[in-house]
């Protein structure tokens, strides 16, 4: 028996990393304000690390979509695997050539990942485990996570190219 509504429990699960990072930051600030010497310096370091963690945790929590999508995404040992009811496959992260946001006929969105010499993966943004793609995308050179988040948040009228391997040569 749960004393919390399922929606509230899901919200806490989604934002738990942010809550933990905020508590760590608060501890650092407390040590900076009330301690002296080594503990004050340690508090300043904890505060800096905590603020950085809060920013990253907020981005990660915003990236996660409500579940219920078809299939499961697994990111493991440099590979992205998608196991869906009709399609699926794996691809090497190093071999990624492009990342697109595809708009389906029903208005839902999919990630379309294309890699060299493999079948592309068409992954619903709300598939189980799709939040693991945040770390994959954040490590792609030249891909701006603000653009990715905007594509997730805003309604689309057409497919969007978010990243292409040739973008690496622009800088």
Counted beta strands: 7
Side-by-side strand order of the widest sheet: 6-5-4-7
Helix % is: 40-55%
Measured between the Cα atoms of the first and last residue, the distance is: 56 Å
Strand content: 15-25%
> What Rg is obtained from the alpha carbons, in whole angstroms?
19 Å
Uncertain segments are: none
Question: What is the SS-derived class?
Answer: alpha+beta
Shape: globular
| Series of H and E elements | HHEEEEEEHHE
Mean pLDDT: 86
Main sheet properties: 4 strands, antiparallel
Q: Number of helix segments? A: 4
SSE layout:
Layout: H1 6-34, H2 38-63, E1 72-76, E2 79-83, E3 88-92, E4 96-103, E5 109-115, E6 121-124, H3 133-138, H4 145-153, E7 160-164
Helix pairs in contact: 1-2
Description:
- This protein has 171 residues and is an alpha+beta fold.
- It contains four helices and seven strands; from the N terminus they run ααββββββααβ.
- The radius of gyration is 19 Å and the shape is globular.
- 41% of the residues lie in helices and 23% in strands.
- The model has no long low-confidence stretch (mean pLDDT 86).
């Amino acid at each position: 028996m749960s004393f919390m509504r399922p929606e509230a429990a899901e919200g806490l699960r989604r934002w738990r990393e942010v809550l933990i990072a905020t508590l760590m930051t608060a501890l650092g600030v407390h040590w900076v304000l009330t301690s002296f010497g080594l503990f004050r310096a340690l508090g300043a370091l904890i505060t800096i690390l905590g603020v950085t963690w809060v920013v990253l945790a907020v981005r990660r929590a915003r990236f996660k979509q409500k579940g219920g999508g078809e299939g499961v995404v697994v990111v493991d040992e440099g590979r992205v695997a998608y196991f869906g009811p009709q399609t699926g496959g794996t691809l090497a992260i190093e071999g990624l050539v492009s990342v697109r946001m595809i708009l389906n006929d029903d208005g839902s969105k999919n990630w379309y990942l294309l890699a060299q010499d493999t079948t592309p993966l068409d992954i619903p943004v709300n598939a189980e485990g799709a939040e693991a793609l945040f770390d994959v995308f954040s490590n792609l050179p030249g891909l701006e996570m603000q653009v990715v988040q905007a594509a997730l948040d805003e309604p689309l009228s057409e497919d969007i190219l978010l990243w292409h391997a040739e973008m690496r040569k622009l800088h």
